[in-house]
Amino acid sequence: MIYRENGQFKTNYLSDQQILPIRQDRIAIALLLIVAAVIVPLTATEYLFSAILVPFLVLSLAALGLNVLVGYCGQISLGTGAFMAIGAYAAFNFHTRIDGFPLLLSLLMGGACATVFGVLFGIPSLRIRGLYLAVATLAAQFFADWAFLRIRWLTNHSSSGSVSAGRLELFGLPIDTPAQRYLLCLAFVVVFAVLVKNLVRGAIGREWMAIRDMDVAATVIGIRPTYAKLSAFAVSSFIVGVAGALWGFVHLGSWEPAAFGIERSLQLLFMVIIGGLGSIMGAFFGAAFIVILPIFLSQFPAWLGLPLSTTAAAHLEAMIFGVLIVFFLIVEPHGLARLWSTGKEKLRLWPFPH
Amino acid sequence: MNGVASGTLPRTLVEPQPEAERDVAAVMPSTTSSATARRRAGAPILVVDDISLRFGGVKALQRISFEVREHEILSIIGPNGAGKSSMLNCINGVYTPQEGSITLCGRPLRRTNPHKVARMGVGRTFQNLALFGGMTVLQNIMAGRNFRMKCGIALQALRLGPANREEVAHREFVERIIDFLEIQAWRNTPVDRLPYGLQKRVDLGRALAMEPRLLLLDEPMAGMNVEEKQDMCRFVLDVNDEFGTTVVLIEHDMGVVMDISDRIVVLDYGRKIADGSPEEVRGNEEVLRAYLGGAEAAGSA
Amino acid sequence: MGFLLETIIGGLMAGVLYSLIALGFVLIFKASGVFNFAQGAMVLFAALAMARFAEWIPQWLGFESALLANALGFIVALALMIVVAWAVERFVLSGLVNQSGVTLLMATLGIAYFLDGFGQTLFGSEIYRLDIGIPKDPVIVADGWFEGGLLISREDVFAASIAGALVVALTVFFHSTAVGRALRAVADDHQAAQSIGIPLGRIWVIVWSIAGFVALVAGMIWGSKLGVQFSLSLVALKAFPVVILGGLTSIPGAIVGGLIIGMGEKLSEVYLGPLLGGGIEIWFAYVLALLFLLVRPQGLFGEKIIDRV
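Predict the joint structure of the above. Result:
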């Protein structure tokens, strides 16, 4: 009754192709943005910012990037952590070695460096696919692990590979308080989400999905698989690189190579699977889930009066992840995002059953 | 659908031509010789010369030669396993024949990639429906327009001005194809939810979206009932009529083949055993023995 | 010269240990077309089970013999692995029949996470000793030919002989028994195998049980060498390059691939390492696998993959 499209007719293709064609959706998103940009900074606690909101935003960005590659283009990658590391360390080098280099530019240059390597490690995808490609991306992961530990130049000659971003400043304004950090991440996420949505509903998005669904048929209708796959790797690694830079600069402050190891790559893959492959919303759902679950697991048993040790909670978390991955792959391969959109479909008809 | 039964002519992609130039027989597949006589065949657009294709020890094609003239409808027929789909795959560049040459619009195809052949103006549908299951009907057909879209990724990401205009222009073209194939009601449905007959139309629509000069159709009427076959025949004939698209068609339904083809090539076990007009092929001894199974075969569906 | 030989032999021995883990991969891939990311977790789970039961059973039943404890621990652990195989078939594989390889890979990732967490919840997450009575002191051989002789670890020789015996047994199994043939049919095409009456579910339980057995043997040997601990499942990641090199469908390939990777790692660390700053073992195997993937994706002994449209 509330969520009906009655009376919302589109009279030209331009309006039919809008990102949010239904008026109720537009209102909902506008409200969400107002809450996120105005109300949250004024009311949230420091804990909420640093333990939940900022990690959620940065990981959503990384998951968005990974979803472009895995969900839309169908190329599996187990090396996402490596590209986050490249973004973080590259941004660090630009920021600290060049005096007065703007923060925004450092972050974007981090993304650009990640893009170069993303395309390089995407070249195997032109010849191999599926699980073979997964192993190839592992090569990127372990090579990056080693490089940031052993190649002194990359970390400004730090002995353990650990570096620190120092004071952050955007156009002269300091980024000190948790609220300011949060707003910076929010801005990046909103901008990138819109850009990716535009790509995905345009020509390149159709190319990626065509390659994912049936790559031989895609070539037969004139799509060049090289361009499609490498562009997916490029766009994906750019976003993941920027996310890595944000993770290091804004969330961690100082970091070491282990922050971007294989556990991070797997975690991002889980986010994308549980959240929903091939969906923008999916990145957010997945990231929210991954951020909230450990916190839930450490607090909830205490409420019930059965406190769990941290190791026990960690093991329980691993078990729950495992079960959920299998559950989603069997029952709803399109993840939480599909459950959400099915719910919306039902809402369209509510209160009628069909 | 009931376009034929109600007697209305289908909407077409260009302005309707004066009645005198349109032969109503073109939309009624059951009439034969007038359809054939009218067609204006031109110079050879595709020359297949001495093609041999092997997979390990299996000889899929042996020394096949034939040519296809522009604007004509050529059917390739033969028993299962005769190598018909393999022949189309060679033309498309999906398989590379070990021997022989294929010349398209005067240019030889040498170890080319399928996407280059596609850009030279060759469209293709598939026997097993190679549709993009994760996309809607509209997206599948729009994908056929992709190689004509020029805006780079940066412009697409910002979706301003030129990118928007390009998307809308191609959308208009695709909508006309959707109208032509009468699948408007399903344009936003994911293709894997459609019934088989509609999926076949989407496959055809995607090939048509490429505006091909040469259209390769691999069993476009397989698994259809009589009405659906009539609709599909109508679409094929209209495309050939209105745009002069050359059609190479693999089909098992002899009624359809005899009615709409200008010429027929018959394959058996990878060899060509006949090549000529429907009348010539119908009377050919070897063809009768290998495939049609006797004099009463022609006309059975 | 002696040092080079020692390095090579040391590398070959390490390679045998990788091969033991890779064998499990190949088995599962050969028989069900699944790339089992959880193989390492299975090794860890099996090793944990054996180590702990070998510790608990003497306490419960009140005897002292280490040999009996180990034997019973092995049997109980094997039974547990069969239960795991049954559970994997019942809850995971039966829901994903004929899905794409990537989907199955991600499902095995889920299994890996679950087994990691579950194993450590059941058995604890410290380092456990596993002593199966192999003499740990090395042996010096060939001291007539080389100065000081060559240092060879007896543990590694033991491991190598076990691996060799397993390879022979498994190869015979696959080629000469009816069950083996059925397994190969299933690997080719699930639906086709079902349509000729092969009981898919039961076959998968058999395969995963055998892979579980191989994982237990691998875990036992690795565990007695390094101690049973969580990092075992990460070591297993090394087995991926091994199967890429050897070919995903070849049992002898797993051995050869393991030997090459083991040897290559040691040699590259000793001779190439100092040039690049050391520690290149963590990526050498993967980069080698990557090069193979670009040049010869089916590995040394695998079957070529043809795409039909």
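Chain B has two domains: 20-121+214-294, 130-211.
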